[in-house]
Write a structure and sequence with these properties.
It is built from 24 helices and 16 strands. The protein is of the alpha/beta class. β4, α7 and β5 form a beta-alpha-beta unit. α15 crosses α16. The relative contact order is 0.10.
Length: 597
C-alpha cells in the first residue's frame, strides 16, 4: 500500500511504525455551579502556568543546533496569555458556567473559523501553533502525561495525526528514523524542525493513523512524498540503495555552500536567503547565502495582539543588520491586510481581500504605522548594510507617495540627531502585471527590482493557488509568465539597476536554467535550497542557458516548455534529475516532476 502526502523533509526513512495517538483527550462538557466558578478559573490559570514552565524548560534544553528555532516556542509562550484565548476562556467559564476544558475548546473553534477565512496559506496555517498550545493546556487539565521519545526501545518511524514543534524537537535521531502525519504542510513549524533535524518526513497523508498498524514495516520517501506500507524485499532493496545515494548526494551538494555562484563561463549570480525569524540567521550563514534578499516583517505584527512598538522594531532590525554585516539585509515593509489579521488595525470585511487593502495600500492608508516601520528600518541602517523593499507596487504614483513618507521619516530622524544611512537603497517588488508593463518607467525611480513570482503568477493567470478547483492551473512555466520575467529583467538592466527574484521560483532547481538564461542578477530562497542551486550554477554555462531560454520564450504552451526544459535538465544535470525514475530529488524536498507530464 502506498500513501501519498507532501514531502516535508527530504531523505529516506525505513523502519517499523510506532503510532503516537496524541489526540486521545476526549473533552466533555460539564456544567458547574455558581460556587465552583472561581475554583474552575484557578484550575485553568494553574494549567497555563504549568504550560509556561514546560515551555521555558524546553527552551533551556533545546539543542544548540536547533536554537535558531527558539522563536517558535517563545511565540507559544505569548499565545498562552493572549487575551483572545486566556481572557475569553476565563470569561466563558463565568458566563456559561462550564468547565475549563470545554470553554477552551469553544474558544479554539471560534479562532479556527477566523483563520479559515485567511487566504494566505502561511498565515492560515499559524492556527496550528494555537492548537498546539491549547492541546498542551488540555493535557495538563486532564492529567495526561506527555510522550518521552527517549524511552522508545528501538528505532521507529513515528506516525501521528499531527505533531507539535515540541514533540518534534524532542525526537532523538537515534530513536526516530522518520515521521508521518495525517495533516500538515511544508511550511508548518513541525516540517521546518524536521528539516533542521535531518529527519525524513511526509505530512498531509490524510489517513496514515487509520491505515497503518503499529509495528508494520514502512518506507518514508520525503523526496517524493510517499509512504510505502509493508514493502516486499525487492522494494526494500531499491529504497535502501536510494537512501545511500541520497546521503552521498547530500554530502556532495553541501560542499558547494561557500563557493561563489558563478557559471563555467563567468556569469556571477548573487544567492541570498528569505527569512522571517532572527533565529534563522545562523542557517543563512551556514548555507552560504550572501545576505538576506527578503526579510519578511509580518511575523513581528502577527505575534502580538497590539502593534509592536518602535523600539521593538528597531532592535529587531538592528540585530538583523549587525548579524549579517557586511552582507546586505533587504527588509520588506509590511505586506499584510485584507487576507491577514492584525487585531489593532480595524479593517472592514472585503469581498475579495487579495485585491483589496493590503501591503503598500494599507501602509499608505495607515501612515503612522508605515512611518514607524520606516524609521525603525532607517535607524537600523546605521548598523549594517540595509535595503528597503516595498511590496505590491502597481505604478509610479505609489512610489512617489512612498518616497514622501520615507523623506518625512528621514527628516524626523535628522531633527532628533539619530544616525541612519542617507543613501539607503530602495527597491520594489514586481508582482502585479501593471508593474511589468511599466517596468521601464519604474526602474528609473528605484535602486533595484525584486520579482515576487508567487503573486505575479497568481495575478497574471487569475488563479487563486489555494483554491482546490483551480490550483492545478498555477503554472510558473506559462509562456506569458516567462515573458514577463524577461521583460522585467531587461527593463532593469536598461536602467542600470539589478533585478532580483525572491518568490518560490527562485529556489526551485527546475527553473534555474531559464532564470540564468534570462539574466537574473540575484536569487533569494529558502536556506536549504542554496547548496544545490549553487552547485548547479557552477556546473553550467550561461551561454547554454541563454540559448535554452530563447527557445523557451518562443514556445506557445507550458507543455512544450516543460518538455524541453526537462530534457535539458536530465542531459546537463544527471545527478540532480534522475531520468531512470522519472523524477528528481530536490534538496529542499519540493515536488517531484514526472518526465512525461
Amino acid at each position: 500500500m502506498i500513501l501519498k502526502g507532501v514531502g516535508a523533509s527530504p531523505g529516506i526513512g525505513i523502519g517499523p511504525a510506532f503510532l503516537f495517538d496524541n489526540l486521545k483527550i476526549k473533552v466533555l462538557k460539564k456544567q458547574i455551579g455558581e460556587g465552583e466558578i472561581e475554583q474552575e478559573k484557578r484550575r485553568f490559570v494553574r494549567a497555563v502556568c504549568d504550560a509556561e514552565k514546560q515551555i521555558n524548560q524546553l527552551l533551556i534544553e533545546i539543542p544548540d543546533e536547533l536554537r535558531r528555532h527558539s522563536g517558535i516556542f517563545k511565540t507559544h509562550l505569548l499565545m498562552l496569555r493572549d487575551p483572545m484565548v486566556y481572557d475569553r476562556t476565563l470569561k466563558l467559564i463565568s458566563d456559561e458556567r462550564i468547565n475549563a476544558e470545554w470553554a477552551l475548546s469553544k474558544i479554539l473553534d471560534h479562532v479556527r473559523r477566523l483563520f479559515a477565512q485567511i487566504k494566505d496559506q502561511y498565515i492560515r496555517e499559524r492556527i496550528e501553533d494555537l492548537e498546539y498550545v491549547v492541546r498542551r493546556i488540555q493535557n495538563l487539565l486532564s492529567g495526561n502525561p506527555s510522550m518521552d521519545f527517549s524511552q522508545l526501545e528501538k528505532p521507529v518511524v513515528l506516525v501521528a495525526h499531527d505533531l507539535s514543534p515540541a514533540d518534534t524537537i524532542q525526537m532523538s535521531k537515534g530513536k526516530v528514523l522518520a515521521f508521518v502525519t495525517d495533516v500538515g504542510s511544508r511550511t508548518s513549524h513541525t516540517a521546518i524542525l524536521g528539516r533542521s533535524l535531518g529527519l525524513p518526513a511526509v505530512v498531509g497523508t490524510g489517513d496514515a493513523m487509520s491505515s497503518i498498524a503499529s509495528g508494520e514495516s514502512l518506507i518514508v520517501d520525503g523526496l517524493a512524498g510517499n509512504v510505502i506500507v509493508n514493502p516486499d524485499s525487492r522494494l526494500l532493496k531499491v529504497y535502501r540503495d536510494k537512501q545511500q545515494h541520497y546521503i552521498r548526494y547530500q554530502l556532495e551538494v553541501i560542499q558547494h555552500s561557500n563557493f561563489p555562484a558563478e557559471t563555467l563561463d563567468g556569469f556571477r549570480v548573487k544567492i541570498k536567503a528569505n527569512i522571517e525569524f532572527l533565529e534563522e540567521i545562523p542557517s543563512v550563514i551556514q548555507h552560504g547565502a550572501e545576505g538576506v534578499g527578503l526579510y519578511r516583517s509580518e511575523y513581528l505584527y502577527l505575534a502580538h495582539r497590539d502593534l509592536p512598538g518602535d523600539e521593538e522594531l528597531f532592535h529587531t532590525y538592528k540585530e538583523v543588520a549587525e548579524r549579517l554585516s557586511p552582507y546586505p539585509a533587504t527588509i520588506r515593509t509590511l505586506d499584510i491586510g485584507g487576507d491577514k489579521f492584525i487585531s489593532s488595525v480595524s479593517l472592514g470585511d472585503e469581498i475579495n481581500p487579495a485585491l483589496g487593502l493590503r501591503a503598500i495600500r494599507l501602509c499608505l492608508k495607515e501612515s503612522e504605522l508605515f512611518r514607524a516601520q520606516l524609521k525603525a528600518i532607517l535607524r537600523a541602517s546605521a548598523y549594517g548594510n540595509v535595503k528597503i523593499l516595498f511590496p505590491l507596487i502597481s505604478g509610479k504614483s505609489e512610489i512617489v507617495e512612498v518616497r514622501r513618507h520615507l523623506e518625512q521619516a528621514k527628516e524626523e530622524l535628522r531633527r532628533g540627531g539619530i544616525p541612519f544611512d542617507e543613501g539607503i537603497n530602495i527597491g520594489i517588488m514586481i508582482e502585479v502585471p501593471t508593474a511589468v508593463v511599466m517596468a521601464d518607467s519604474l526602474a528609473r525611480e528605484v535602486d533595484f527590482f525584486s520579482i515576487g513570482t508567487n503573486d505575479l503568477i497568481q495575478y497574471s493567470l487569475a488563479i487563486d493557488r489555494v483554491n482546490e478547483y483551480v490550483a492545478h492551473l498555477y503554472e510558473p512555466l506559462h509562456p506569458g509568465v516567462l515573458r514577463m520575467i524577461q521583460r522585467t529583467v531587461m527593463a532593469a538592466h536598461e536602467a542600470g539597476i539589478e533585478a532580483a527574484m525572491c518568490g518560490e521560483m527562485a529556489g526551485e532547481a527546475m527553473y534555474l536554467p531559464v532564470l540564468l538564461g534570462i539574466g537574473i542578477d540575484e536569487l533569494s530562497m529558502n536556506c536549504l535550497a542554496i547548496p544545490k542551486i549553487k552547485r548547479m550554477i557552477r556546473q553550467t554555462r550561461q551561454e547554454d542557458c541563454r540559448s535554452l531560454a530563447q527557445r523557451l520564450l518562443e514556445a506557445s504552451t507550458a507543455y512544450e516548455i516543460r518538455k524541453e526544459l526537462l530534457e535539458f535538465l536530465v542531459s546537463n544535470f544527471p545527478e540532480d534529475f534522475d531520468s531512470t525514475q522519472g523524477m528528481y530529488p530536490d534538496f529542499a524536498g519540493r515536488d517531484v516532476y514526472p518526465l512525461n507530464s
